[in-house]
Structures are given as C-alpha cells and as structure tokens.
DNA sequence: CGCCATTTGTACGTATGTATG
DNA sequence: TCATACATACGTACAAATGGC
C-alpha cells in the first residue's frame, strides 16, 4: 500500500505524489467528503517538502478531485451532503466536474 | 502606469501582481502572441520573490490569459499564428478559452 | 470571551535541473 | 558552449482561518 516516491524518476516528485493520492481517492481509500491527510502528514509520510505537497494538491485540485479550505484541510470531492457552512462561491469556474469524480 | 504592489493590502501580493499584468494584457500593453516580462524581470521590477511571480503567472494561466513554455517564456494568449513548433499537447483540459481572450 | 493547536495561505530564500536558442 | 528562462525541490517564517476548550 505504500507506493514510494522516486526522486530520480523522470516524472516530477509532486506529480508522482498527486498520482498516489489521486489513486487512493479513486480507489475509495479516501471517501468523498472526507479529509485527506494534512500537508504535515503528507510531508512526514513521503519525506518531501511542504512545497512539493502543495504542488501535488494543486494538481488534484485542477483535476477536480479535491477541494481545499483554509484552516480546515483538503476534502475529497463528491460529498453532496455538503459539509459546507456558508462560503461566498464554491465553484471556481473550472472545467472541474462539479459532480465529483470524473468516471 | 507603474501600479505598485502593497504588501500591507488585504489582497495577496501575488494576486495584486496578477491583476497588474493581467490589466496590462487586456489594455493591449502586452500584445497577443508576444512574450511578457520574464520571471527575473518581474522580480526585479516589482521587488518580489520568484515564487510570488510564479504564483501570479499561475493565476493568469488559470484565467487563460497566458501560456508558459519551458525555456521560452510566458506568452500572451491569442497569437493564432501559433508560434508553436511541435508540442505533445497544447491544451491542459482547462476551462481555458482556447480562442484567447475571454471577451 | 480568550487561548491554543492544527491547517492552509502567503512570501521569502537557495540550489539544481531542463529546455531553448 | 553559453546565456536566458522556466521547472522542480528543498528550507524558513509568519499570517489567517478554523475549531475545540
């Protein structure tokens, strides 16, 4: 279960990380509407800098797989029950599948 | 024309910078298909870190205003003559107005 | 209410790699 | 070969939001 990062690989580490977390999401390991590990957690677990983690999260965000909230964390998309409280504008004018997962 | 950045403002510096450059693009100061100032230039001109410049460029990229090419620079979108040489996949599955400018 | 821990946001610095011309 | 420009990755620090107490 612990896909490891390879700094020597052709693929950038942050992309490898986004692949890993993204796969974990699609595999159901991280359920829709729930929080994925915090940046600190991911840093510790994978031995990378925060920057790298944030870049990876950025990829997942662009893919519409997750949504990040200041002070709260990063949630797996698709929690239609909406653990949202208010928020001025949830959508971000992205291609992003507002329904949640792509397939 | 020299809109200055205000580190004390409510709006994040990188967002202020994206506003400035974005406005310069829409005002025609930076013509479609041409290069905008390099990261080094923007750093020097505005007195900010490279990271900040890159964040600003990221905003413009998300807005579909510019396109960045490794080793080349960041171009104002709308150069339909296509200064492209080959490239595996130009689009990035973004909302991005493939035609160029939003309006 | 204030206090505090956690978490993301912003901004800086440095180094090295890769692409282009 | 070389200079320029962007890409990746590490580090630090402080701000702001959140939520439990």
TrEMBL record, chains A, B:
Region (Disordered): 73-103
Protein name: HTH gntR-type domain-containing protein
Keywords: DNA-binding, Transcription, Transcription regulation
Residues annotated as domain HTH gntR-type: 11-79
Organism lineage string: Bacteria, Bacillati, Actinomycetota, Actinomycetes, Cryptosporangiales
CDD domains associated with the record: WHTH_GntR
Record field: compositional bias (Basic and acidic residues): 78-87
UniProt organism field: Cryptosporangium japonicum
A Pfam family: GntR
């Amino acid at each position: 279960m612990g896909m490891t990062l390879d700094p020597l690989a052709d693929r950038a580490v942050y992309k490898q990380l986004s692949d890993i977390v993204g796969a974990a999401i699609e595999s159901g390991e991280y359920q829709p509407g729930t929080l994925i590990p915090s940046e600190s957690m991911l840093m510790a677990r994978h031995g990378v800098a925060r920057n790298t983690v944030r870049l990876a999260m950025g990829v997942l965000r662009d893919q519409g797989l997750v949504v990040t909230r200041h002070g709260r964390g990063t949630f797996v998309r698709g929690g239609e029950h909406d653990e949202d409280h208010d928020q001025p504008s949830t959508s971000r004018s992205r291609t992003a599948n507002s329904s949640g997962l792509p397939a």
